[in-house]
Amino acid sequence: MKILVTANLVPFMHGGANYHIAGVVNALQAAGHEVELLRLPFRFSPEADIVRAMSHASEIDLIQPNGVTIDQVLSLQFPGYGVAHPDHRVWVMHQHRAVYELYEPAKATTELADLRERVIAFDNRVLRAAKTVFANSRRVAERLREFNGVSATPLYHPPAQAEQFYCEDALDYVFFPSRLETLKRQHLVIEAARHMRSPLKIVLAGDGGQRGALAQLVERHGVGDRVALIGHISEAEKRAFYARAQAIVFPAFDEDYGYITLEAMLSGKPVVTCSDSGGPLEFVRHEDTGWVEAADAQALAARLDWIAANARKTADAGRRARDAYASAGITWDRVVQTLTRSYN
Asked: What are the coiled-coil residue ranges (predicted)?
């Protein structure tokens, strides 16, 4: 089949979305399909630019551009899922979160409140018109049902280079690789370090808009001997840090999916997450493949101290996590079969 994939282009901002986009394109091509990727420029502000982006997407007709018949369109992101095609399938990574679960009416400007109405109307219209809708995770499907009344099927996919993760004997640290952004909540882990009694170290990898603020927080709390902000690392370095960690810490707020959880499981490491962390809760079973704690610095500190004192039990949890991933059937072959399935 000739399949066109739509996604966003946000210059010089790289994260999990890029891995997802590249992964699905490569998997479709490996399955023998002809695939083109259409990336639409996107800006998160001002609100007027987002309105224009929705309008632009809605005007794109992909039924037979330049006389070429496209058999199927697969859209991954807002607002690109507004394009028109008779066999339009949408796999939602997440919606425009600023007007959904992150929206705070008391703090919203008039422009944001107006945008919220426009985006919800847009999503209601285009998602209900799609031939089928999948969601990146059960959490994303829950939001679609809650806010839009749209039924979506959760469809999980592997992280990039899944086959290259490995496990080695643990050293005395926990690892947290992620963009340094408020929603990832590295600050919560730094706060936890103040309350810890064990010598366990915390390694925070990645870069982002909160790096300066987090560095100041480490200094202010006097935990520089315990918390290391190591900045950007290569993929090979990331896998090595996973392999030797006692456990992985991932307390993000209402995460959509969370590659970190899956990468940890592939590395044979348990995950410490929070009760409001969203996507990770679909994989982390408390006191089995990891631990689910309150989003509270003292609760996280107590769990990290427990990990330091219980190396064998922690390693056992990591082995169960790796087995759980293996039994979950998360493969690109399964994704492609699901996305390209024939419908009557």
From this structure: none
Q: Please say whether the structural domain 2-155 has been given the CATH code 3.40.50.2000.
A: yes
Taking Cα atoms as reference points, which of 321, 13, 341, 10 lies closest to residue 181?
13
Question: Which option is the CATH number for 162-328: 3.30.390.10, 3.40.50.720, 1.10.10.60, 3.40.50.2000?
Answer: 3.40.50.2000
What stretch(es) of the chain map to CATH 3.40.50.2000? 2-155, 162-328
Nearest to 229 by CA among 261, 258, 189: 189
- Per residue in 294-306, pLDDT (tens digit) is 999 999 999 999 9
Up-side HSE of residue 89: CA atoms within 13 Å toward CB? 22
Phi, psi of 155 (to 5 degrees): -135, 110
Task: Convert the pLDDT of each residue in 74-129 to its tens digit.
Answer: 999 999 999 999 999 999 998 999 999 999 999 999 999 999 999 999 999 999 99
Neighbour count for residue 289 (Cβ, 10 Å): 23
Name the phi and psi angles at 228, rounded to 5.
-115, 120
Tokens representing residue 132 in the block: 């089928």
